[in-house]
Amino acid sequence: MFELSAFDLSLLLTLALLAGLVDSIIGGGGMIQVPALFAALPGFPPATLLSVNKFASVIGTIGATIQYAKVNKIPWALVMMSSSVAFFASVGGAYLVTQIPTEWIRGALPFLLMALLIFNIKSSAGLVHQPKHQHHQQKAIASTGAGVIGFYDGFLGPGAGAFYKMLYTRVLGYDFLRAAAPAKCLNIASNLGALCVFLFLGFFDWKIGVALAVANLMGSQIGTRIAIKHGNTFIRKGFFILATALIIKTFYDAFLK
Fold this sequence. Notes:
Largest sheet: none
């Protein structure tokens, strides 16, 4: 059982809705939802709060994926193979995070994000749909990238959705709108992988999870409509804003907190 004041519950649900909205457009909704959970429920085990975040994110992301799939066809052969890799890599990452310290990755993450942000600013990635590789090469590249990012998502997680989108836009040559559904399929897979580990270990709260999932889903439906309406340029600007925010947050968490 959990106890929340009406104000805390309303604030938590509002932030979950906002997280779903942001995540559906550019990724990174966990930056909003995870701190909100830790602030509202300080007495809960961290693993329980992380599993609740994963569950709500999965529901919201599925809703967003359905909306994006109505606009652009999903390359299912590519997505299914790389999603399977992301799922199992995330399982490994989520298990490993319970066994070893993560401080060294926390310290390296903001600098990695900064390099990737600069790398993307200097290109027109995401604005034009120009796939760079043949089908068999796409599968190999997408699966390799999904494995690395999926492991990271299970192990640590901040910005994994943005990394998946970067994989499709910068590496595979998709534009942002066509990259949205495939990237979100990978994000669903790695979230499910980590969630399975948390559920197996008994870390979950259904009441909080379902409440946040509903709010996250509502936000994702609003966000996808905004993204589809305003197109690639709008999403690209939002992506850069998110990457900058991730750099600031991960630097603070690693060195100043």
